[in-house]
Amino acid sequence: MNPPKLTPELAEIIGIHVGDGYLRYAGSRKELDISGSCEEKDYYDDHVVPLLNSCFNLSIKGRFFESRNTYGFRTSNPRVIETMKSFGFPSGKKSTIISIPPKVICFRDMKVVCSFLRGYFDTDGCFTFDKKVTNVSLFQKSYNYYPRIMFTTCSKNLNDDLIKIFTILRLKCRSYTYKPIKPTESLKYKLQITGKEAIEQWMTLIGSKNPTKVSRYLIWRKFGFCPPKTTYQQRLDILKGKLDPHLLYGPMV
């Protein structure tokens, strides 16, 4: 098979795989399996599955995986498997060894790099919004107003690769390690991009196609804060004016 052309669409699929994918090809069972939270059904049905079908001329459909309570897809298409192999992805568990393919990092077209980041963020990144407690206003003490984009990985290679890409894009980030309490868990690497200016830069350069994540951003833009621990349906109700986000905080002292 000829090496695949690295398009923005394929780069986004690669980012999605880095975030939520599982590739098998070492034995007789050969497949690509990608799934996420059941709340992300719309993201998979309206974007991820059509994107894969368009890139590889397929007709797969999304499905629930009841045993692990996720939603996504699975394909054994040889072109898909060989394409993912050609970018150096391992067969089997990848969480501690995954990295960004050098072809993506070194690609001169920033659309390709940004598409990869969008795919990775939409599956493994998150928007969070924090309160602050010192030398700030009552609003800032009371509501989750300060925006962050967060990534967490068990792979030092992936963490270092992300820092390289963020440096290229002039996105300021902070990286630190976190040692889990349980001795059986791997060391975690965390990256964060913080502040209003940086988040707006992200949305301009990279954006998001995952409505569960975009909903948090839209609430923050509209109200200046985004309540934590909300469901996707609650956030939709907030954006439709059916739910007042202030009420989720209870009485203010």
SS content category:
alpha+beta
**Portion of residues in helices?**
40-55%
Total number of domains:
2
| Main sheet attributes: strand count, strand direction, barrel closure | 4 strands, antiparallel
CATH architecture title of the largest domain? Roll
Shape: globular
Q: In percent terms, what proportion of residues is strand? A: 15-25%
SSE arrangement, N to C: HEEHEEHHHEHEHEEHHH
Number of helices: 10
What do you see in this structure?
- By secondary structure, the protein is α+β, with helices and mostly antiparallel strands.
- 42% of the residues lie in helices and 18% in strands.
- It has 2 domains: 8-96, Endonuclease I-creI; 123-246, Endonuclease I-creI (Roll), CATH 3.10.28.
- The protein starts with 7 loop residues before the first helix and ends in a 14-residue tail after the last helix.
